[in-house]
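Quick review question:
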């Protein structure tokens, strides 16, 4: 599948009578293209006064036809296309952005539309007054007035619902202790607030009991903790290579036994008091190492969940946890109505995903309302596996890797509309709590754990990501915002070498309380001062840090 990206010109949006100015930018992106078909993403940024509804129109010049759309209602008459908001995304604040996507067909060529119009006004590339000014404009001030927002939260523009942030227990070996589990999932001081725990499904049922205590503790100690269970292999006798390792395919005449095996695991855990929320069909079906593994194609996964998925009860299924979120392992299931209805989630691993260009929204999953979970990544190159640098909370190399690689990819995953981010082992010397090696103390929180908790502890399951805009002063900051349970939460990465002092954050309504938690090379989840004035909160964002702001409305 060839992919290309083309941005359209800036356009002007008509606003209600009496509005001071109107304007918008339209970005039309051909996200993927194949023989006879293509996918496109469209983003409208409102540069004028707030919109309560919108209609975007354009014409195709080469006979393209829209076939299906999501997050908008699209109609076509000849070459003319009309896209209208749906019930939940008609309101667009000043500087807010609303997006939708669609699939289409083409023959011969697929050029980008030459122009766009929003609410009947053609694109001009500037913000235009809706009525002539009655007086000569005064000279604009050379500095922004006090209280001008640097970050504006727009709760009218909504994105994905968050399912959580988590890590895996040991897939082979011992379980977390009760105290370790509470440190990882608990909400208290020096606890990290994880809301997803990933575990393995052993092909040997006698090994299932190993993780029962840790999983029960996780569900009892945290808030809305979900359990994801992933198998690495079926029993050896059911596979074409008669081995647990080096890949090998599941024999087709054992598909029903494998479905019963996964169902038996879920029911066993239920009997032990553990709810398995999600069951993956296979960990990394495209990776066949000399340890537990099993080979599937995308079509084989589709056939299995289509024909056998309904046998796995009291849980929801996931495909395909492929390396680099390879769409070839998930598109076949999404494109088959029966298979699609038998799954609840799309999973993928972060290894190579950014380099492959798939650290972005997955349009086909969004089209069918299947949340995307990033279910595994492990990156630790800052020091050797025996270096005591991992135990040193102030080590510069470890902090740089944590900020620039680990939490940056959490930020990018959230911007990609993914609903969950699950790290590899939660207990490891390079991870969230120490395991007693490389100078770490077993069970003690590590710097990387505190940094990850800036998301996990405050952005909770059921929160919804909402839009933010930034001033030029806040341009070094990477910001995502979330709304839920009467609160707004902002996670702010400042990976630059300069602080952003006295940043003004504009909420959509009065803030009754603001809390600011900061992790940097020198502090862990430290409370920072805030100033609240109505719907505005003023904070300072230190250089090379991650902050979480929690506003109570």
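Suggested answer, residue by residue:
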């Amino acid at each position: 599948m060839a992919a290309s990206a083309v941005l359209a010109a800036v356009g002007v949006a008509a606003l209600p009578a009496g509005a001071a100015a109107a304007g918008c930018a339209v970005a039309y992106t051909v996200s993927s293209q194949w023989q006879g078909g293509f996918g496109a993403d469209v983003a409208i940024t409102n540069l004028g006064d707030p919109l309560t509804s919108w209609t975007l129109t354009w014409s195709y010049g080469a006979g393209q036809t829209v076939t299906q759309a999501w997050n908008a209602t699209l109609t076509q008459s000849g070459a003319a296309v009309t896209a209208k908001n749906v019930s939940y995304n008609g309101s667009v604040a000043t500087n807010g952005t609303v997006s939708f996507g669609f699939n289409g067909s083409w023959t011969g060529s697929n050029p980008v539309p030459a122009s766009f119009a929003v609410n009947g006004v053609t694109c001009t590339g500037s913000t235009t007054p809706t009525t002539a000014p009655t007086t000569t404009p005064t000279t604009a001030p050379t500095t922004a007035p006090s209280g001008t927002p640097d970050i504006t939260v727009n709760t009218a523009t909504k994105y994905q619902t968050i399912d959580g942030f988590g890590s895996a227990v040991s897939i082979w070996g011992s379980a977390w202790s009760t105290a370790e589990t509470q440190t990882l999932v608990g909400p208290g001081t020096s606890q990290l607030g994880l809301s997803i725990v990933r575990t393995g499904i052993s092909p040997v049922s006698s090994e299932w009991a190993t993780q029962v205590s840790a999983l029960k503790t996780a569900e009892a100690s945290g808030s809305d903790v979900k359990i994801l269970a992933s198998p690495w292999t079926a029993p050896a006798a059911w596979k074409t290579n008669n081995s647990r390792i080096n890949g090998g395919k599941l024999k087709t005449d054992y598909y029903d036994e494998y479905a019963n095996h996964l169902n038996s695991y879920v029911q066993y855990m239920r009997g032990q008091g553990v709810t398995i929320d999600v069951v993956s069909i296979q960990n990394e079906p495209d990776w066949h190492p000399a340890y537990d593994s099993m080979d599937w194609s995308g079509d084989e996964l589709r056939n299995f969940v289509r024909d056998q998925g309904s046998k796995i009860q009291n849980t929801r299924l996931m495909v395909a946890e492929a390396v680099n979120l390879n769409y070839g392992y998930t598109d076949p299931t999404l494109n088959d109505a029966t298979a699609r209805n038998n799954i609840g989630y799309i999973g993928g691993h972060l290894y190579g995903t950014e380099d492959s260009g798939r650290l972005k929204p997955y349009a086909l999953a969004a089209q069918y309302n299947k949340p995307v979970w990033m279910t595994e990544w492990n990156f630790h190159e800052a020091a050797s596996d025996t270096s005591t640098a991992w135990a040193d909370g102030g080590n510069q190399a470890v902090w740089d890797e944590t900020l620039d690689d680990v939490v940056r990819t959490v930020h990018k995953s959230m911007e990609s509309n993914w609903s969950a981010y699950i790290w590899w082992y939660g207990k490891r010397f390079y991870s969230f709590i120490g395991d007693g090696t490389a100078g770490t103390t077993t069970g003690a929180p590590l710097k990387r754990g505190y940094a990850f908790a800036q998301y996990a502890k405050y952005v909770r399951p059921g929160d919804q990501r909402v839009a933010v805009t930034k001033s030029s002063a806040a341009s070094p900051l990477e910001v995502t915002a979330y709304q839920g349970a009467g609160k707004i939460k902002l996670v702010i990465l400042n990976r630059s070498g300069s602080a952003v002092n006295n940043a003004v954050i504009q909420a959509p309504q009065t803030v009754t309380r603001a809390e600011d938690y900061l992790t940097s090379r020198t502090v862990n989840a430290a409370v920072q001062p805030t100033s609240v004035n109505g719907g505005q909160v003023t904070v300072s964002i230190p250089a090379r840090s991650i902050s979480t702001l929690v506003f109570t409305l």
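Why it works: Confidence is low (pLDDT under 50) at residues 1-20, 129-146. The chain has nine helices and 28 strands.
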